[in-house]
Amino acid sequence: MILRALIVDDEALARARLRKLLEVEAELEVIGEASNGPEAIAFLRAQRPDLVFLDVQMPEVSGLEVLQALPADQRPAAIFVTAHDEHAVQAFEAHALDYLLKPFTQARLHQAVAHARQHLETQHRAADNQRLLAWLHAAKPPPAYLSRIAVKNGRQTLFLKVEEVIYLESAANYVVVHTAAGNQVVRETLLNLEAALSPRQFLRISRSTLVNTRWVKGLQSNANGDALVVLHDDRQLLATRGLRELQQRLEYP
């Protein structure tokens, strides 16, 4: 039985190292790589590999969220790749098919692959998926994100609903909040606001711009080949991320 495997890690060097180590596994074929959660979800849905080596800690969409995005009957056998502390590793060992703690050895990787092969060949996937699903449901709830942004205006403090925010633009230690009703200035850094806003709703498209994905109408490129994010009011925002990466992120928010 040839295992068809996908490698998911946001670090290119980590993906390359894992692929190199897997070359000695004669009955395993790496059929693809993904550098982020949305890309992994699209690949898993289209190619349905037997096994996925899944980095837990990734920006925007974590390894756990990748699995949560798939129906239970479409989830491959999952080997988590993690640099988490001892308590997190114990949780993975109790509920996941297997885990690899960075940095791992060739022998440890072989053991994980052998475990995956036994799991698949003996058709115990359903039972293991149920244990993993129970863990996913038992995981701590997602963090609470801002629903309103406080804006001081003289002696008043105004509260803007995040749904009304079209995009946020960095200006040194201030952030300009763009809304359909006008612009407001907040004494805060874009980095701090980004951490307080839901990553499913707000997307960093450049170093200085964070856009509300609900206000995005489309994507296009200019004459120089730069990516542009087109808003519903036809404004265009310059993006430093590539069109393919932006499209994947907007398709799987």
How would you characterize this protein structure?
With 253 residues, the protein is an alpha/beta fold. The chain folds into two domains: 136 residues, Rossmann fold (3-Layer(aba) Sandwich); 104 residues, LytTr DNA-binding domain (OB fold (Dihydrolipoamide Acetyltransferase, E2P), Beta Barrel), CATH 2.40.50. It is built from eight helices and 15 strands. The strands form four sheets. The protein has a five-stranded parallel beta sheet with strand order 2-1-3-4-5, sandwiched between helices. β4, α4 and β5 form a beta-alpha-beta unit. The relative contact order is 0.10. The mean pLDDT is 87.
Summarize the topology:
Elements: E1 3-8, H1 12-22, E2 28-34, H2 37-47, E3 51-55, H3 63-68, E4 77-82, H4 86-95, E5 98-101, H5 106-121, H6 125-138, E6 148-153, E7 156-161, E8 165-171, E9 174-179, E10 182-186, H7 190-196, E11 202-206, E12 209-212, E13 216-221, E14 227-231, E15 236-239, H8 243-251
| Distance between the amino and carboxyl termini | 35 Å
- The counted number of beta strands is 15
Specify the structural class: alpha/beta
The total of helices stands at 8
Tell me what portion of residues adopts beta-strand conformation.
Answer: 25-35%
Order of helices and strands: EHEHEHEHEHHEEEEEHEEEEEH
Largest sheet: 5 strands, parallel
